[in-house]
Structures are given as C-alpha cells and as structure tokens.
Amino acid sequence: MSTELLAPLDLAFWHLESAEHPMHLGALAVFDPSPEAGDEEVVNVLAARAAAIPRLRMCVRGVWLPVGGAAWSEDKHFDVRRHVRLVRLPASDFAAEVRELAGELMERPLERGVPPWEMYVLTGAADGSFAVLVKMHHALADGMRAVAIGAGIFDQIAGTRSAAGARRGRVVVPPRSWLPGPRQVAGFARDRFEEFGQAVGIGASVMRASRLDLWADSALAASSSGTRRLATAVLDQAEVLRIRRTVGGTANDVLLATVAGGLRRWIIERGERLPGVDPRALVPVSRRRPGVPPSDGNKLSAYLVGLPVTEPDPWLRLTGVRDAMDRNKSAGPSRGAGAVAVLADQLPSLAHRFGASLAGNAARVLFDVLVTSVPLPRSKLSLAGSPLREIYPMAPLARGQALAVALSTYGGQVHVGLVADGKAVPDADRLAECVKEELAELLAEVLTH
C-alpha cells in the first residue's frame, strides 16, 4: 500500500493524544470454549488474519508537506507478534481479572512508530472460555471502520453476505482523465465555499454552546489521574425494543434515557447532590453513507444531548431524550456545536498540530460524558471455532472527562462498556449495575402507562 496522508480528522485524533489521555478505541470480546483450538492456536489464527489486513501494517510518519501533516506508510519491519500477545490469568475469578487487566491495558498509549493497534488473548478460565482485548488508535479507525476490520478477523457463522458476494454487486467505473474540466473546477470552488460557510456556522455554534456552569461537584468532573477502570453490563435487547414500540422514538433514545437514569441512581447512592444543570452527552454520529463499505479515515459528527438526571420520572426522562434527539436529527449531523468533528475536517494540518492542546481542553466546556453506539453485524461470529458470546466496546476519555459509555447490540443483548477514570470513578462496577436497574424500572414504568 502506498503512502497516504492522514485525513484532517484522523490527524486531529493523532495530535490530541497525551500520556493521560490515550486516543484509542477498544473492545473486549468474550468467546465460548472450543475443543478444536488451544490458546496458542487462537493466537496464531488471530495473528495470521490481522497480518493479512493491509491497514494493520501501516504506521504514521511525519511529512514535510503539508506542514504539520502526517501520512500512513507501510512498516517495513512489521512483526505481528509485537501486536498480538497471549496473557494467562488465574482461573479463580477470571471475569474480574479480565476487567481489571483490560482497564490497565487501556491506560497505556499505543506505541508510536509502529502500526497503532494491539490485541491481547486473555486465557485461564476454568471452563476454557477466553477473551480478546482489541486496541486501535482513533486515527486508524472510527467505530464503523473498526467493525469492518474485525469482520476480516472473525468468522461469520451465518446471516450475512460474504465479502466476495458484496463485491460482485459493485459497478466498475471506467477511469477518467486526472485533468479536471471547467465544471469540475467550478464544482470544487463551490464545495470549498460551502465548507467554509459550514465551518463558520459550526464554530459559532460551539462558542454559543460553551458554558461556564461546569458540573464541578460530580466525580465525573474530577481532574484526570491517567488511570482507567473498565466496567460492563448486559441489557436485554427485547426489553429495549418493547419500550421503543410502546413510547416511540428509537432504541438509541431508550438507551440514552437508561444511561441518564443510571447516572441519577448512582449519583444519589454516592450521597452527591444532583447537579443544578443536566450533564451533556456527546453522542457520535457516523457520516458514512448507508450501504457503502467503510473507507479509510474517520467519518464522524456528533449531537449534544442533555441527560435529564434531575428528572425523577423515568417516563419523562425518556420523552425528554427523545424530543432532544428529534431536534438534533432535524438540524442534521453537520450543524450545531456537536459537529466539532466536521469542523476539524475543515482545518489545515498545522492547526491540528499546534491547536491540539487547546482543542482537547475545550471538550470540558462542551460536554460531560461520551455516549456512543457501535453497530455490529447481525450474524453470529466466532474465532478459531470458538463462538463469540459477548463484546463490549470501549471509547477513549477526552481531557476533562471521567466517563465514556459505549454500547453494542449482539446476540439479542446490548453490551455496555464503561471506561472510567480509575480514581474519579472507582465504583464503576456499581454504575454499571445502576444502568441495568434503570432499564428494569423504565420498562415497569412504561408498562403501567
């Protein structure tokens, strides 16, 4: 694969990273045991498939032009064994050991100068089950791109078209001259003018949305310790869909309201005062076109949504979230303060290099918590003959943030991955339980209306 410049948003993620705030995505996948494969075979299969994906052989190098830019180039000394590792854990409390180690591994920034990803095969469970922790730098992939990479590593047991079948449906476009015609030049100028106007509008929205009434009394506004703690929860997808059918809106509205109620429950249990203003969630939105295979580079925008933790009624929390999301969708993902990622796409490379620190600190005045949904294939997945049982997505923490919530639906369950600052939120496990309890209360409330 030839050298390829990092897209502006990818470059922003690359420069936003610091030792205390590594900018990698993660996923913790738990697999049922298989009599066909031992630990070493699982590692060998994982390593062979990862090495066969060209993007995973690429590292980031500096370039002279554009000034401040960087490019993907093939690592001539690529060794997949530097990236895929086997870790054996005690069998006594395997699940807890996995979560603790996953939190520690998520603390560590990925090594620069080599392809920015790692995978750990975690074994030792008494029943033969095992877990795989995946770390990928956000510059390498957004959620959709990470899922596409995972599709090249895991086996699809049933339910989706093969990659070859998908390719057969593509229309081959004949090559055209690289010289632009008059219409193309005019179109390019018009697009750049529209992008400039869009950037100005987003910048103004960011300024208007910035606030000084920070949620300062909460653990979620604590200063960063650089530590990470991982907690997980499993929700019943059927319950989420039952609520959605009764109330309307989307399944994501139900999940956002569930997170809001879980936070409220957790804050009260900790003896903290409820905030005077509802915390704001940054809800990422993919800008990839439906049905189009994910291309390289991040394609993201986001919505800003108030999480109504001050509202005691679960029903009103849900309707409030649904109304807020409806307003966001009416405006579109490329407008408003949440579209800061779109704004990043309009900035030159030099601005990302020297403005990363300022941009990172600005996150705190825009939102209090990240809540993201990562779509997964509907087919059943496996690795080396071992069926995938659970998969928990993990999102990075921006500066000034102590909690990121990521959700994925697989096998009739919604898997919730909480990544928290280890010192600010040492009771992340209890927060995960509060989210589960909130869904049960919300369902009961909806059924009584």
UniProtKB/TrEMBL annotation:
InterPro entries: Acyl_transf_WS/DGAT, O-acyltransferase_WSD1-like, O-acyltransferase_WSD1_C, O-acyltransferase_WSD1_N. It comes from the Bacteria. It catalyses: an acyl-CoA + a 1,2-diacyl-sn-glycerol = a triacyl-sn-glycerol + CoA. Keywords: Acyltransferase, Glycerol metabolism, Lipid biosynthesis, Lipid metabolism, Transferase. Pfam families: WS_DGAT_C (PF06974), WS_DGAT_cat (PF03007). It is an enzyme of class 2 (transferase). Its EC number is 2.3.1.20. GO terms for molecular function: diacylglycerol O-acyltransferase activity. Residues 6-254 form the O-acyltransferase WSD1-like N-terminal domain. Belongs to the long-chain O-acyltransferase family. This is Diacylglycerol O-acyltransferase.
